[in-house]
Write a structure and sequence with these properties.
Layout lengths: L1 H10 L14 H27 L6 H28 L4 H18 L1 H16 L7 E4 L2 E8 L3 E6 L4 E5 H5 L3 E3 L6 E9 L5 H16 L4 E13 L4 E9 L5 H19 L17 H10 L6
Antiparallel strand pairs: 1-2, 1-5, 2-3, 3-4, 6-8, 7-8
Length: 298
């Protein structure tokens, strides 16, 4: 009886020979994977898309479908490995092969991934949005599109410049549209015949003229006797334009008013001049000058 019991115990449960699988588990795995994929897509459509739709940038609109695809691929890959294991195959070799292939793909697409992560940086940090005026490593223009891998900027000559997002993420970005005002610096040159009293009057006149222009913030306007150069003595004038949409028109108006005000006040604006001083020191010098002006016989 003991021998029969031992033999029965050895035969139950029936041992699965190597390579034999549990093929009956495959439908259940497929069903679970399909449910998880549907739940993931539903979560993304319900929450993430509602979050990114109100934003100005289109980058997040492109990033969300990409995240959804990557998530679905991961779920299907795991389900495929489980099914392969249930069929009795050696999944260790499969996982090793996938790992080697993943390393090869990652190495080949490292620049693409750098651009994608750069796009994620732009999405989270938001250094600029669509229609902003930016300067990226000397490239200045209006942002037209922010994509998953690249950003498109149209410069002031009308040319479209496409920059990789990885370049932007590592660059110094100057966003002119984020400035509350635009500062304008102007140098006005007066002739050396201007007296100190006239210089003080010119500084006051420049300040008053600028502050009277529409669109200029009057609280930060300033003018100073700045320098003396070869042909003029200069006034440095600084002011801030509040109306950013019309800053070019405001600057042109200010320049016209300055020119008109200085002309009416009788101030002489300088232009490049050179004073030549001639001295007569004797006959020898005259003879030297005369011989020096003689054309060469060659």
């Amino acid at each position: 009886m003991a021998a029969d019991a031992a033999e029965t115990t050895a035969l139950w449960p029936p041992s699965r020979p190597p390579g034999a699988g549990r093929s009956g588990d495959s439908p259940a795995v497929v069903t679970i994977a399909w449910v998880v994929v549907r739940l993931t897509d539903g979560f993304i459509e319900t929450y993430l898309l509602r979050y990114v739709e109100p934003t100005e940038t289109k980058l997040d609109d492109e990033l969300v479908p990409t995240v959804s695809r990557i998530t679905n691929i991961a779920i299907i890959s795991v389900a495929g490995i489980v099914i392969v294991d249930s069929l009795g195959c050696d999944v260790t070799a499969v996982i090793a092969s996938l790992g080697i292939a993943g390393v090869a793909v990652a190495f080949a697409s490292r620049q693409t991934m750098a651009d994608v992560f750069g796009g994620a940086h732009i999405l989270t940090a938001k250094p600029f949005v669509i229609d902003d005026i930016v300067d990226v490593n000397g490239t200045t223009g209006v942002v037209e599109r922010i994509g998953l891998r690249t950003t498109r900027i149209r410069d002031f000559d009308g040319r479209v410049i496409t920059l990789p997002n990885s370049t932007i993420a590592n660059a110094e970005v100057r966003n002119s549209s984020s400035e509350p005002t635009r500062r304008v610096k102007t140098l006005l040159g007066l002739s050396y015949e201007t007296t100190p009293a006239e210089m003080d009057a010119a500084i006051d006149l420049a300040t008053e003229t600028v502050n009277s222009a529409e669109g200029v913030g009057t609280d930060r306007t300033g003018a100073w006797f700045w320098d003396s150069n070869d042909s003029s003595i200069g006034i440095r004038l600084e002011y801030h334009v509040d109306d950013l949409d019309r800053w070019k028109e405001v600057r042109s108006t200010v320049n016209h008013e300055l020119q008109r005000a200085f002309e009416n006040a009788g101030f002489e604006m300088a232009f490049p001049t050179r004073t030549v001083r001639l001295e007569h020191v004797g006959d020898d010098a005259g003879s030297v000058a005369q011989s020096g002006s003689t054309p060469s016989s060659d």
